[in-house]
Amino acid sequence: MTTPEDRDDLTTPDRASNTPEDNTQGPSPDAGQQDPNYGMDIHLQPDFVRAIVDAIHADDTDTARALVADLHVADIADLFEVLSSEERRSLARLVADALDPNFLSELEGAAFDDVVKVISPSIIADAVKQLDTDDAVYILEDLNAESQQEVLHALTREDRTALEEGLAFPEDSAGRLMQRHLVAVPEFWSIGQTIDFLRAQEDDQSPNDFYELIVVDPAYRPIGTVPLSRVLSCKRPMRIKDVMNPDPHIMHVTTDQEEVARQFAKYHLISAGVVNDYGRLVGVITVDDIVGVIEDEAQEDILALAGVSEGDVNVSIRDVSRTRFIWLFVNMGTAVLASLVIGLFDATLEAMVALAVLMPIVASMGGNAGTQTMAVAVRALATKELSPANAMRIVNKELIVALINGVGLAIVVGIVGMIWFGDILLSLVLATAMIINMVVAGLSGIMVPMILDRFGVDPAVASSVFVTTITDVVGFFAFLGLAALVLV
Amino acid sequence: MTTPEDRDDLTTPDRASNTPEDNTQGPSPDAGQQDPNYGMDIHLQPDFVRAIVDAIHADDTDTARALVADLHVADIADLFEVLSSEERRSLARLVADALDPNFLSELEGAAFDDVVKVISPSIIADAVKQLDTDDAVYILEDLNAESQQEVLHALTREDRTALEEGLAFPEDSAGRLMQRHLVAVPEFWSIGQTIDFLRAQEDDQSPNDFYELIVVDPAYRPIGTVPLSRVLSCKRPMRIKDVMNPDPHIMHVTTDQEEVARQFAKYHLISAGVVNDYGRLVGVITVDDIVGVIEDEAQEDILALAGVSEGDVNVSIRDVSRTRFIWLFVNMGTAVLASLVIGLFDATLEAMVALAVLMPIVASMGGNAGTQTMAVAVRALATKELSPANAMRIVNKELIVALINGVGLAIVVGIVGMIWFGDILLSLVLATAMIINMVVAGLSGIMVPMILDRFGVDPAVASSVFVTTITDVVGFFAFLGLAALVLV
Description:
Chains A, B: Pfam families: CBS, MgtE, MgtE_N. The structure is a homodimer. The first copy, chain A, has 23 helices and seven strands.
């Protein structure tokens, strides 16, 4: 039997069972069965997916429903996402009305579009009714205008207005992320009053699970937060104002979700009140919704640096081709520019074909070094580790690093050139061009993102095309130009 | 005055003050003062940093302490991070013993190393005593062995053992992330019993703020969770087992933090029990600690793709140069390999110098296209959107996208070639090589990360060198090889 006293075991070494000594005994015989990851993500197992696909093709409603019956809504969403577009629609037709409608708020991109195409607006309306406002808004914002109206009309006037207000906030703003049902209490309440108030809430009035109370002043402006664990561990007569954390972190409805996420991460927030222009509390954002935002924002940066605007593997071939082509086309301009620089030296190249053989080394090493610095700069700007306060120091540092590595690589490439072509002068030209391009790469890797950021352009999206253009052009120009001067 | 009924306003449109209509009135006159972001991150303002630096150089303890007095611990950490290494040490000497020792757990990398070098082990020991086990372990793991021992000896035997056990778990494992103080209750308890138990906890026994109770069976295995909001809103006689969420998500002590973070994000977890090999609950991980992990892991992927192992702008020049040089050196091998391929065709190049001018276009466009596909694949593998269940579908899709974009770019580059050199055969060779290299780029962009992942190598770290090697070699070989066959 577990008694309250048992929990103190956890820090009592002689009874806790995960001491280092225990580990040396290896897992117990039944460890396999207790592996907590066992059975996780089972929907991603090819066998399970195959069984689902078979049921879809056999149009076998019962089997399909039985297979998905015990899945978590997030797993159901993942299952839809691994299927092809047609399979998704067929599966939705077979099982949608038997599912917890919450799975809709877990679906992303193309999978969401496929599923809502075939399920009835009444199922979507049911989902929207049950969900927190932020999740409901997430579903609604992805519907086309017609379905959106259909769903909104199926709601009560009150729910509809709340959602319409949510949709009126800019995309990716705190207003879209926030949950409107919340619990706010005045600071002069006692713990006892607060608990009685919470117990008296009717189910449809109280928000889903929450973790902190927001303390408001008479004008309904947030002035503090109280973690629920503190409400539970304090005696009934204590006052809210004596246990609250003052100076709450507050978001404005229009604050960008990236900034909201940055503050949650930095200050380890569990929830934050959202206020309107008048400072009045209108909603609350909880950390579980922010986790997804942080993943999305970091993902966006990764993909943007690689020239991809959409990382969802489920986007249609047409959309993927189009968005990637635009980026490739822009880069083609860069590549042609680099070729024009080479073209300036065609006489030099004709005189010495070894230059053509070696020239890509200088350009490509510059590109690599520039990309390294750029990735660090883009992330440091996003996390605000790089700011006007330390910009000079960081630029100086990158310059020194570029010089050190430039000299190092120049020595290596000089030796390679000597061994290959046995030409000291050629090797010296190669080494000098390498140093020049590495320094230019380091400088442009740090300066380009900083300048873009200053002008309000997202450095993750635009930096790499500038940096590689600079390193290509400078790389070819320095190498071939020096060769034209010295060698030919 | 705020009454409980007020909170229902939030969904009552006629009284909520953020209706779209309100927005059209523009901000209220005092909106500027109420801007919740106003004053945020003030430590990053150059003026503030300059004032701190001045105080450091003047060795002015009072001013320095006054300036940092009201900062949040996270802001203090950020302040240290924008300073130079010497300034950090001076500031730590001036203010460390007046600061909330929690700021230590907010410091990262080089800034942490600088600060702990100059503050006394007793301050560190004080911090460690006050912190959650996970934060204390975070501080200890970054200390050198000597300081670690010094700090551990300043602790009580019980605290010391708990931390030593924490340090015994692998780096980046759930065991390192978990908090050992937790509240677990048996399922047969009533809500009333639970509240009484929580109120009876002495301060030094109860964990810091927490958000869910973990329900355990008699063998202390987790069998459910109860959000505290549910404890607060239920009547005293209700039983824990009737309000708990069954089937809790459980982590094993050795589970990698990346997998822990993925499950938190996917299942919107607020906390998760951590068990040992025997399935016994030994700790709890809360979402506020996971937010940092998610940021770090995504950041790692971004930097790894760019060939950087350390994104901290505060790492020393020597360390930065060394780690980046290793990557550049590896890439130099790639570049030389590409040059060797070009070298095979020196006679061809000598016969037609236009080939040297155009050849980087084919290689660089292949590199760009390969990077696009690779970035998507690396992220999809990390989030498990790409799995054996849908691998074939995704590979086929990438192949089709590569073919479409290859043909598109081939037409563009063919026209460029015609305009520039007026040579149809040369343009056809260029266009054909482009199609070949784009298809190879698409295939290698998706296959290389998948193969690396299958063999347990982190695709984010190793993919790009393989992909660019392939696209360079194939690009030069296809273009110059075709030219040798057709043109010369």
